[in-house]
Amino acid sequence: MADVAEAVRAEAAALHRYPDRDAVALRTDLADYLTVSTRVVLSEANVWAANGSNEILQQILQAFGGPGRSALGFEPSYSMHPIIASGTRTDWVPVPRRPDFTLDTERAAETVRERQPDIVFVTSPNNPTGGSIPLAQLRGVLAAAPGIVVVDEAYAEFSSQPSAVELIAEFPAQLIVSRTMSKAFAFAGGRLGYLAAAPAVVDALQLVRLPYHLSKIAQAAARAALRHADATLATVHQLAAERDRVVEALLGLGFTPVPSDANFVLFGQFADAKASWQSYLDNGVLIRDVGIEQHLRVTIGTPEENDAFLEASKEIPR
Ligand code: PMP
């Protein structure tokens, strides 16, 4: 926090000037971070940044979607994908996941071949269900897709699975990996999302970005936060261990948690999820009803918060 504050203070003297519209220093730092965390060597030419990954997704749809084009996603997944598609007049093609929320990637590849969408969204780890897609299966979807495949890796740091960044060299004209500092970096208020792709994809996004979209303050604050990536990732590992503890404990209590690589766990079964959500709240625990029948989603917190959640879980009507 001190470093972020100092970085912002230093920028304050220069706020009468526009920021670097290409955010080269920040993109270089993000490329270095990805190179270290995925062991795939990337440069700033592979990386683009915006105000949260929602803006990244919107720029992708502005550049590659639009009237007469379509985007396909596997549901349930991140609810903003169809909303941003609709805002850019891109037709949305929803394809259901299996009843256990995993993706039947062979069928997915078939559907992609049939529907020929201009853009395919794969969220890995998936929000709100938590599971991720192995790279071998992702390859099948990429091979079937006629256009862009966006792998939304907002929760990637919480997962032990390899990143889709490993496949960029193999599918340079297709693959875009979307990332954010909102989750693992605990930087949601700083608004910093980014993507990794081939340099030509990054060039294409220059056609739709607004001039100076990323403020000097956001760029400087994000660079300061990135200097602390090691400490941040140590916390992320603790959180992932807590997640696994919570899943085990839920199993012990007779719940059916969905295997998660993210910082939340979807779990059931509840006869009336809405009533059970209220019962958690009455016990002082606020979790989420994400609209999936018989299920609720808990975000992993501090060990004390997780204990309070598990204690309340013993009292909840199912
Ligand atoms: N993708 C996924 C899968 C998300 O869950 C979220 C936030 N909930 C986002 C993208 C967008 O986050 P942000 O704009 O803060 O980067």
From TrEMBL:
<comment type="subunit">
    <text>Homodimer.</text>
</comment>
<keyword id="KW-0663">Pyridoxal phosphate</keyword>
<dbReference type="InterPro" id="IPR001917">
    <property type="entry name" value="Aminotrans_II_pyridoxalP_BS"/>
</dbReference>
<dbReference type="InterPro" id="IPR005861">
    <property type="entry name" value="HisP_aminotrans"/>
</dbReference>
<comment type="pathway">
    <text>Amino-acid biosynthesis; L-histidine biosynthesis; L-histidine from 5-phospho-alpha-D-ribose 1-diphosphate: step 7/9.</text>
</comment>
<dbReference type="InterPro" id="IPR015421">
    <property type="entry name" value="PyrdxlP-dep_Trfase_major"/>
</dbReference>
<dbReference type="InterPro" id="IPR015422">
    <property type="entry name" value="PyrdxlP-dep_Trfase_small"/>
</dbReference>
<comment type="similarity">
    <text>Belongs to the class-II pyridoxal-phosphate-dependent aminotransferase family. Histidinol-phosphate aminotransferase subfamily.</text>
</comment>
<keyword id="KW-0028">Amino-acid biosynthesis</keyword>
<feature type="modified residue" description="N6-(pyridoxal phosphate)lysine">
    <location>
        <position position="183"/>
    </location>
</feature>
<dbReference type="InterPro" id="IPR015424">
    <property type="entry name" value="PyrdxlP-dep_Trfase"/>
</dbReference>
<protein>
    <recommendedName>
        <fullName>Histidinol-phosphate aminotransferase</fullName>
        <ecNumber>2.6.1.9</ecNumber>
    </recommendedName>
</protein>
<keyword id="KW-0368">Histidine biosynthesis</keyword>
<dbReference type="Pfam" id="PF00155">
    <property type="entry name" value="Aminotran_1_2"/>
</dbReference>
<dbReference type="InterPro" id="IPR004839">
    <property type="entry name" value="Aminotransferase_I/II_large"/>
</dbReference>
<keyword id="KW-0032">Aminotransferase</keyword>
<keyword id="KW-0045">Antibiotic biosynthesis</keyword>
<keyword id="KW-0808">Transferase</keyword>
<feature type="domain" description="Aminotransferase class I/classII large">
    <location>
        <begin position="5"/>
        <end position="312"/>
    </location>
</feature>
